[in-house]
Specification:
By secondary structure, the chain is α/β, with parallel strands linked by helices. The chain has 33 helices and 25 strands. It has an eight-stranded mixed β-barrel, surrounded by six helices. A five-stranded antiparallel β-sheet has the order 6-5-9-8-7, sandwiched between helices.
Length: 1001
Amino acid sequence: MVLLGVLFYAIRPWQVAIWAVLGLSGAAAIEYGVRRHRPREPLPWRLLAGALVLFVIGDTFSAVLNSDRLAPYEVPFVIDMCYLVMFVLMSAGLMGLARSGSPVRDRAGVLDAVTLLLALGLLAWMFLVEPRFRTPGLTALEQIAAVAYPLADLLLLAMVVRIVILARWSASVALLAAGSAGMFVSDNLHLFARLDGFWHIGGPLDVGWMLLYWGWGLAALLPSMVWLSEPGPAPTAELSSRRVVLLGLSSFIPPVVLLFQALRGPVRNAEAIALLCIAMFVLVLIRLVDAMRVHRHSLARERLLREAGAELVAATDVAQVTDVVRETATGLMPPHCPHRVVLAVDEDEAVPPGTAASPPRAAVVADPRALHPAHSAELAGFASVLSCPLAPANGTSGGRSIGTLLVGADENVLRTLQGAMEVLAVQAALALSRIMLNDEVNRRDSEAYFRALVHNTADVIMIVGNGDDIRYCSPSAAAMFGREALEGSHLLDLVVPEERERCAGYLLRVRQERRGETTDWTVWGFGNRRLQVEVSSRDLRDDPTVGGLVITLRDVTQRRRLERELTHRAFHDSLTGLANRALFIDRVTLAVDRARRNGAITGVLFIDLDDFKDVNDTLGHPVGDELLTAVAERLRGVLRPHDTAARLGGDEFAALIEDAAGTGAIEAVAEKVIRVLSAPVPVGDQVVPAGASVGVATTRHADDGDELLRHADLALYSAKGEGKGQWRRYQPALHEALVERLQLKADLDRAIAEEEFSLRFQPVVGLTGGGTVGLEALVRWEHPHRGTLGPGEFIGLAEESGLIVPIGTQVVRQALAMAARWPTHAGLGPYVSINISARQFRTPGVVVDLLRELDEAGLPANRLMLEIVESLLLHEEEEVWTDLADLREAGVRVAIDDFGTGYSSLSYLRQMALDVVKLDKSFVSEIAVSAQQRALVEGIVRLANTLGLEVIAEGIETQEQREILADIGCPYGQGYLFSKPLPAAEALRWLVDDLDRPTAD
């Protein structure tokens, strides 16, 4: 190419042809360099080669058309199109090289380039373009050329400057810049020459274009050309001294131009210069803001790396180092950037200090497919992976890598974080080297410790050969087997005879599968004691230092005994020894499955003791426990040996009857249970009732264990509803009854909210005088679909569900409001008697609530009588007795309802301060036909009179009953003989009529 340049000036007749060959040789050199060196991005170089070809074509046409022969046929449009496309290809090629060398978006470089371009553009406009643009006589095409050519050259020069700034400095970069500078100088001088009319081929301007051909062609021929398309370090927004100088000079150009024009004369284009100054100021300001932002990011990364270094110093194992590295790498990543961090540690690569080792590779961005298969699979899905060798600084650990830090993410992100990741890798390598060195020191220091440990451990450690002969035995064998010298004996000779075959199979499996497992053997211990030992093994036949099976024996005799005992306790009741709920449910499930396979009948009995709570409350829990134990013994005696008896909890028992002859056999067992438990149980000096209710269910109506248990529970519920000491079998109708009960409960909730309860009032009259002294309020439920329901149909459900409390509140409010309207005579009026449930009375604040309701109704306290049941007094709760005393002190009277039907109630007449005793209907109904019943009632009345209590007899239905009660001194009574329960309006009329009714003598 240099020779062609010499010939170009030496042989003038052939200048046009030599010029064409000279230009094409530059393009050919670029193509040859691309094919030879194979850069990562060949397209930018080929675009530059194409631009040179167009440049040659345009120059050739221009030279020919400007000759004397062809001057009249000049076609500048074709030439200008060649030059235009040439500039486009050059721009694309140079931009491609700039992007290839910096794949990361370089905002700082763009801002710097724009700032420089504006400054140089101003100079080009003021001193090159505008003077020629205003030259008289120029055609429109020439005016466009006067503007376009300098600006295009300036743009190309800016791209070259960006390449010089970003790319790694090399000879190819220098040659590329020199060729571009020669083109820039020659193009602008050529523009002057064309406008002034003194340009011709073969002049000195052609040297600049020769530099373009020579520089670009030689740049492609050198091996360093591949560096231009290789991604380099990520660009930084930090302001280097070179960039500061460049930005400073660029910023001074507009004011200097303005000053230059002001000194020479009138200022031209002042507005454009001012706007350019503002634009450049804004660009420089943005550049400074970006630099500050990058500085803050750098500080944040440094802080993260410092914190990581502190945590790595405290790390004690590889897992902790891995966690710290992953957390730090994640913190360095941009927000919401998909990534994955792998710390691949190869401890086998670590070499002792002082040994020769090859230096580790530098951090590179690689294709994950080129990694180890395991790491490649873990990082699948990422196109680029940053690989940082874990090599401590200053040659620690022999200067050799002990692993690799692999980070998968976007390539641009990896280029940006490459430096920070390298620092993190060095810190991790230092921590790993320290940990490995500590492990090695600890391992060597602990060898003597473990040697002593083996000799003194209670476990017996043996090395067994291929023939099951003992080649080594630890000294602890003396304590377990009574002799220390077991070497040479057969291992299976230590095992009891019935287990030797199983133990031989265990040793065979260990050798065949080459993996250890744990099992239990029974061996002959010291003094021919049978010991249960836990056996673990490890196959070390390939280890030259061992060469056999390592068998460890640990005495677990006591532990296994405790485990069996705990297992028994986990599935059996500690008090009775029966199966507990968990074991019973499991056996029921298995029994039902067997019954379905075999076509047999299996049944379940649910057994619940009657009045057991009363026994606990009155006689104490120790007596209750003895009763439960006795019931369990009786239940065992009723069942067959293969049946299962269980205690489900509290006073609930159950029985599983398997392989029954039929449902009749199961029902016979239920009948026998009722009969056996009906006999009282002697406990100490007392005899305690042990009656029970039983629910029976069979697999005839159940498909699985859960359904069978539910059926038995429903049957028990039915049995308890029928009374005590009975058994009932499950029938499908029971399920319907339960559904109906649930519906009734739902209706009860709604009834409380909508206040569907009404009251009936039954008069309490004097048995001798006949006047009404009070009325008992009785609740009714006005059901919208079922009509009026009596207390027996819903009170029990309300008690169970706790809804009795809001129902009782509504009853008290209605009764007091109605009693306040009743007529009085001489300031005296009938009282209202209200039943208070035990649950309602135990509600906190019940006394305050009752007194408040009295005050709101305007009813005197002496016109209210509360009827309580005996069960409320059974627990001897001090709080209950205090509340009763407070009510009586306020003037409210207290009556004990259904007296004589509870448990041991006579003592409460003496202990409690009561006002009234209400005899239950069961005492009154037989008083006319039973002399014994009459004597009993007479005794109760006399006792009450002695204690100063009034007596009211309930359920009087005949005149004879009234007369007998009056004769024995009972003052008051109520019942259908006098009146049925009356609605509120009728009760009011009753009282009005009672005032006018004459009293009997």
